[in-house]
Amino acid sequence: TTMHNSTNDNKSTSKKKVVAVVGGGLVGALNACYFAKRGFQVEVFESREDIRQAKIVKGRSINLALSHRGRQALKQVGMEDTIVSKGIPMHSRMIHSLNGTQSPIPYGKKGQYILSVDRANLNKELLSAAETYPNTNLNFAHKLLDWSTETGAMTFVRAEGAKEEIQADLIVGCDGAFSAIRKQFLRQSRFNYSQTYIPHGYLELTMPPINGEFAMKPNYLHIWPRNTFMMIALPNLDKTFTCTLFMPFEEFEKVTTGDQVITFFQKYFPDAIPLIGAEALKRDYFRLPAQAMVSVKCSPYHLGDKCVLMGDAAHAVVPFYGQGMNAGFEDCLVFNEIMDQLNEDFSAVLPEYTRVRVPDDHAIADLAMYNYVEMRAHVNSKLFLFRKYVDNFLHIIMPRTIIPLYTMVTFTRTRYHKAVKRWHWQEKVINQGLLFCAAVSVAGCSYLLVRYPPNMPNIPTEQLWSRLQALKSPF
What we know:
Layout: H1 2-5, E1 18-22, H2 26-37, E2 41-45, E3 64-66, H3 68-76, H4 80-84, E4 88-90, E5 92-96, E6 102-106, E7 114-117, H5 119-131, E8 136-139, E9 142-147, E10 153-158, E11 163-167, E12 170-173, H6 182-185, E13 192-207, E14 220-226, E15 229-235, E16 241-248, H7 249-254, H8 258-268, H9 273-276, H10 278-284, E17 291-299, E18 302-303, E19 307-309, H11 312-315, H12 324-341, H13 346-376, H14 382-397, H15 405-411, H16 416-451, H17 461-472
Parallel strand pairs: 1-2, 1-12, 2-8, 5-14, 12-19
Antiparallel strand pairs: 3-7, 4-7, 5-6, 9-10, 10-11, 13-16, 13-17, 14-15, 15-16, 18-19
Helix pairs in contact: 2-5, 2-12, 3-12, 8-10, 12-13, 13-16
């Protein structure tokens, strides 16, 4: 095949270089478009069958929230409008409290929203887009067995068991959190790697339409925060909601019968039972076991001028900031920008990509972990909501000085690690400001009380006490 001979071609026509993208998921398929657009010969290798032909799409389906970073990456290859037209805008979170009241917390300023997109459909669209380039081949049912760091030769095993050896000028590992490409990195000296499983698992349930319409308000990301666990729901184009229950594995293990499921939901998510349907709930809860969630960090992202990692292969994150896909898509965009700056010279581009991208991906992995605590617990606290309002209010009156962390992460391309730095600085400033205001208020009130003592009516102590008690009663 041309792939084998291409390395003998005249090197100056770098346009004939072969780029092997391992993994045909979201990041792999988008990357194929980027490299093909630059004129490389692109070979995509995916271990699964073609999901566009598959009867049932296997794999995760946590709904995805597409935001600014991902959109910018799609825009570069002319895919933004296609994808956005099939997404559902979510302008606010909708918090469901235990007593059934719902309160919205907007994501940003008026007009700012994130998009609920369907993972399988997005993947199909990106694969089809990659295929429109004449210099791209999609190879399905190719599972990577091994590859050589010296020569860049890869060995794949086909569905029928046959082995195939492929040679490429650049290998791009987009093969997910359990990357086979990354295995070779682990054998290198001074390669840092860590993976952390959180104690929570997730389980997906479907909330069907009611009389052909959404069962809840559609333009929201619905959240049921319950301290140690929570449920979220995102809208789909077919008028269903995908509900995801996040809960410690030990809690999942306690629920073993259909009746226990209903009891559990009656206790924590009573308003969801009629919407999902008691019978469906009993059935679907046991359809699949709860899935684990892993956070992966590593560094460097490249090996010589031969291989580079992107997406979950480089940085799997827990799904609590809605940035996993957006960060993976931004990897493609950042790599593309560096290719422009350094003239497609892989020996310069790869180390620069590691230098630029590692601190950002580590920062978003940490933020996702932080948000994992925040979403379950803090959204219930009055102080947290008060701080959200203070941040948003300050952002409105000083849009350049105070930018909420969520806004920087979701609605800008501010580098992740810079957003975190700036956030820590802002927290310090705002907290000092609030303390100062509180101190001034107390001093002011004390001064007024001393200067103008109020005329206190004579009220017997018992009466005062009963009045105070009345104030505390919830009704």
